[in-house]
UniProtKB/TrEMBL annotation:
Example GO biological process: L-histidine biosynthetic process
Origin species: uncultured Thiotrichaceae bacterium
Catalytic reaction annotation: L-glutamine + H2O = L-glutamate + NH4(+); 5-[(5-phospho-1-deoxy-D-ribulos-1-ylimino)methylamino]-1-(5-phospho-beta-D-ribosyl)imidazole-4-carboxamide + L-glutamine = D-erythro-1-(imidazol-4-yl)glycerol 3-phosphate + 5-amino-1-(5-phospho-beta-D-ribosyl)imidazole-4-carboxamide + L-glutamate + H(+)
Subunit structure comment from the entry: Heterodimer of HisH and HisF.
Name the UniProt record assigns to this protein: Imidazole glycerol phosphate synthase subunit HisH
Protein's pathway: Amino-acid biosynthesis; L-histidine biosynthesis; L-histidine from 5-phospho-alpha-D-ribose 1-diphosphate: step 5/9
Active site: 83 (nucleophile), 194, 196
Location of the Glutamine amidotransferase domain: 6-209
Family matches, as InterPro entries: Class_I_gatase-like (IPR029062), GATASE (IPR017926), Imidazole-glycPsynth_HisH (IPR010139)
Cell compartments where the protein resides: Cytoplasm
Length: 216
């Protein structure tokens, strides 16, 4: 029987992620919301959600003593980051006047309003970006299986990931600028949107994750 651990560090609506995974996972798959270090490390796959501010997320990860566990899990098994769970994989975030993040990948989290294309634009955008938007698949990946290019997913965020290595990006979205909305490397896939709130395509992505062996 396979198992999926959803990392609970007090930052996210984990129940909706759990319910969506239960809906698409194979019969007998054990899905557990947990902050137990050993349970996370023993799981076959790990989901790392998150919402809120970067500083709060990093503080909670440290308070729950999960920083090293999250990084270890991302090295050893199929690992899915969702929303803030994608952003804090970067080195730093501009949120809260600057926050050191997990540093799994080289890159920064930047504020939409600080992007020159947006700051100097006459287009009136609202922040946070809230609602449905397209994800353009920039590379093939098993988690895109049976999902059309430019499919629409549900987003809620005011900051975006800027990767130093373009090969990390496997999905892009346009909102005033074109930015990285999904990254993938080795056994890690992370996405800015909320797949658990993204109807059929979101469920398909989660289903693909439950079947993924962690290889691109």
């Amino acid at each position: 029987m396979s198992s999926i651990a959803i990392v609970d560090y007090g930052m996210g609506n984990l129940r909706s992620v759990s319910q969506a995974l239960k809906h698409v996972a194979a019969d007998g798959t054990r899905i557990e919301i947990t902050s137990d270090r050993q349970h996370i490390l023993n799981a076959d796959k790990v989901v790392f959600p998150g919402q809120g501010a970067a500083r709060d997320c990093m503080r909670s990860l440290k308070e729950y003593d999960l920083v090293d566990v999250v990084l270890q899990a991302s090295e050893e098994k199929p690992f899915l980051g969702i929303c803030m769970g994608m952003q804090v994989l970067m080195q730093t975030s501009a949120e809260n006047d600057g926050v050191d993040c997990l540093g799994k990948f080289s890159g920064q989290v930047k504020r939409f309003k600080d992007a020159p294309e947006i700051a100097n634009s006459e287009e009136k955008l609202t922040f946070p970006q809230m609602g449905w938007n397209q994800v353009f698949q920039t590379t093939d990946h098993p988690l895109w299986h049976s999902i059309d290019d430019a499919a629409r997913f549900y987003f809620v965020h005011s900051y975006f990931v800027s990767v130093d290595d373009p090969s990390l990006s496997c999905g892009e979205t346009e909102y005033g600028i074109r930015y990285t909305s999904a990254i993938a490397k080795d056994s890690v896939f992370a996405i800015q949107c909320h797949p658990e709130k993204s109807a059929d395509d979101g469920l398909q992505l989660l289903k693909n994750f439950t079947q993924w062996d962690g290889k691109a």
